[in-house]
Design goal:
Layout lengths: L8 E7 L3 H12 L4 E5 L6 H5 L2 H20 L13 H4 L3 H18 L3 E4 L1 E6 L2 E5 L5 E11 L3 E3 L12 E3 L12 E5 L3 H12 L3 E5 L11 H13 L3 E3 L4 E6 L5 E5 L4 E4 L1 E4 L3 E3 L6 H4 L22 E3 L10 H16 L12 E3 L5 E5 L2 H8 L3 E6 L4 H6 L5 E6 L8 E5 L3 H13 L19 H24 L1
Parallel strand pairs: 1-2, 1-6, 2-3, 6-17, 8-15, 9-10, 9-15, 10-11
Antiparallel strand pairs: 4-5, 5-6, 7-16, 12-13, 13-14, 18-19, 19-22, 20-21, 21-22
The structure holds flavin-adenine dinucleotide (FAD).
Length: about 475
């Protein structure tokens, strides 16, 4: 007769059930290990499901539908009412969240993963203490521990976030009604996405950041197009300005004073000034797990901390802090921990920003190509040339293909357009496979599709090269 396993002893304990924790747990279970996942929230899924990716994209879908109806059905008078409830714009959210959480919970159960509700703390390298809401405490033992505790909004003390007038990315969607006006502090991904979404929903949005432009890490031409679109739809961008003070008036309005003395008054504010790693109370110092800049957990290339059986993945280890990368880090960390072949390391990470319009990018920027290859050739496709974009009513996009001065290997792809976050994957595959631009000239793509933009950009680049060679021959 085989002995019943100790219910508190596992091969792997994962702390956090967001994308990073999920994929680590599933990989371990698929390899036949006994796995527990500790989660302090009522439901599994993490920030990705409840406050991040899924809710923000559900609201975006509503804004986008409104825009599409306005564009394509001009015979209809489309206007949101003065007191539109945010919840009515996201009627599908509950359904989407429930389906997602149920799917994850069923998947855990189906793979024999034990879900342990409560707040986890490391006691030693192999012991995780879990305190349940009712105060009961359980000590789990494991060979391998994975920390996937995610992040939360970073709200600096000078911005009095009260989740009523001044909200952060966790509380923004708890607003009952769409405000008449919204100030967005920040110029990063979350700020850009929400600023453009609310602007399309008819809210008067002012976006303020210290940087001269939002999304400083992106191709400047893409950002220019974004600003053009945002301001054309009623948004205001104020760049290169520091905020001197933020106050809530007696009437509950938010008054933002800039360093040049300008006052901006709005009904609500979204503070989107970055995120902090969830490391408090985890017992890192007690166990000797080292932290890096801004308190993130320090890991090596295989997501192993300095304590050899403890791994960390996802937002808690810092940038790029995306759902997409967190999942892959979880899978890879577990493969390394269990000695399973994980395949080649990834060094190409696509960026997808769900602003309106979408922005996406993969590979090198123009400046990087110039610096590393002694010059750059840029093939452009304006979406006014793309039949499918005309049919869908969004011709304001652009796709750029970058190569070195020889016009050969694709080194970067940058897109601003509806559908950019999907479209970029075609370029990503070409980049990963080391394809030349000619791959888009020598092969047939479906028509009419947004993918045609790759062929147009490739032709544009090819024609520049032909002209350059002809000019060189003429001079010679
Ligand atoms: C508004 C917004 C929009 C976003 N949009 C996108 C997008 O479009 N695409 C994209 O790829 N990414 C997006 N992200 C980022 C994405 O949500 C995160 O990168 C991802 O959720 C990180 O996954 P994670 O597993 O590291 O952590 P999380 O998803 O944060 O999960 C961590 C989990 O750990 C639990 N936990 C924490 N501490 C403990 C503890 N001590 N004990 C037990 N449990 C604990 C938490 O309750 C949580 O459930 C967005 C984020 C935000 C805020």
């Amino acid at each position: 007769m085989s002995a019943t396993p100790d219910p508190d002893t596992f091969d792997v304990v994962v702390v956090g059930s967001g994308p990073g924790g999920q994929k680590a747990a599933i990989q371990a279970a698929k390899a036949g290990r006994r796995v527990a996942v500790v989660e302090r929230e009522r439901d599994v899924g993490g920030a990705c499901v409840y406050t991040g990716t899924i809710p923000s994209k559900t609201l975006r879908e509503a804004a986008h539908t409104l825009l599409a109806v306005k564009r394509n059905a001009r015979f209809l008078e489309v206007k949101l009412g003065a007191q539109t409830e945010v919840a009515t714009l996201m009627t599908r959210l509950d359904e989407v969240l429930r389906a997602h959480a149920r799917f994850i919970a069923d998947f855990f159960a189906g793979n024999g993963i034990t879900l342990v509700p409560g707040r986890a703390r490391l006691v030693d390298a192999h012991t995780v203490e879990v305190q349940a809401v009712r105060g009961t405490v359980r000590r789990l033992r494991a060979e391998i521990v994975v920390l996937a505790t995610g992040s939360r909004p970073r709200n600096p003390p000078e911005v009095p976030v009260d989740h009523e007038s001044i909200l952060d990315s966790d509380s923004i969607l708890s607003m009952l009604y769409l405000p008449r006006s919204l100030t967005v502090l920040g110029g990063g991904v979350i700020a850009t996405e929400y600023a453009s979404i609310f602007s399309l929903l008819g809210v008067k949005v002012t976006m303020i950041d210290r940087g001269p432009r939002p999304l400083g890490f992106l191709d400047p031409e893409l950002v220019d197009r974004f600003i053009q679109h945002f301001t054309a739809h009623g948004g205001t961008w104020i760049g290169g300005r520091a905020t001197k003070s933020v106050q809530i008036s007696r009437l509950g309005e938010v008054v933002t004073t800039l360093d040049d003395g300008t006052n901006i008054t709005s009904e609500k504010m979204l503070c989107a000034l970055g995120r902090s790693a969830n490391v408090e109370g985890l017992g890192l110092a007690e166990v000797g797990v080292k932290q890096g800049k801004y308190g993130v957990i320090a890991v090596d290339a295989h997501y192993r901390t300095n304590v050899s059986n403890i791994f960390a993945v996802g937002d808690v280890i810092g940038p790029p802090a995306l759902g997409s990368t967190s999942m892959e880090q979880g899978r890879r960390a577990m493969c390394h921990a269990l000695g399973i072949d994980v395949g080649a390391a990834f060094d190409v990470v696509p960026i997808g920003i769900y602003s309106v319009p979408e922005l996406a990018s993969v590979g090198l920027t123009e400046a990087q190509v110039r610096e590393r290859h002694g010059g750059v050739l840029v093939g452009r496709a304006d979406f006014s040339e793309v039949a499918r974009a005309h049919i869908a009513g969004h011709q304001s996009g652009m796709l750029k293909l970058l190569t070195g001065p020889d016009g050969g290997k694709i080194l970067g792809v940058h897109i601003v357009a509806e559908g950019a976050t999907d479209l970029v994957h075609v370029g990503e595959m070409a980049l990963i496979n080391g394809n030349d631009v000619s791959v888009f000239l020598e092969n047939i793509l479906n028509f009419p599709t947004l993918g045609e933009a790759y062929r147009i950009a490739a032709l544009n680049l090819h024609n520049q090269l032909v002209a350059k060679r002809a000019a060189a021959v003429a001079v010679g």
